[in-house]
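Protein folding task:
====================
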Amino acid sequence: MAKQKIKICSACENQFSCGDSVSGKSCWCNDFPPIFELETGGDCLCPTCFKQSCLYRIEQFVAETTPETAVNNKAALLPKSTNLIPDLDYYVENGNYVFTSWYHLKRGYCCQNGCRHCPY
């Protein structure tokens, strides 16, 4: 039986489960892009705080991205994942999936479909 570690979020101080210490499966946070390191002396963040931190950093990155800098951007160099994260990679509008600028930057190129959030 898998045993998960119980941790305290360094931001909100709520308890949460972290990883799977017995089976060696990776933690839920490994589904998120490796875009930042915790502050010095900080520990893990709970899923809610971690997602909010990712969204904040992604919004900063996207705001500084121009069509010229979108090509060969550092998001495109991140390890590829088939796991799409709601709000980071897409949102649902009227039953349709709308991909975010972050999703397009991770893909690394323009698909020429006139996407709403295309940074290219």
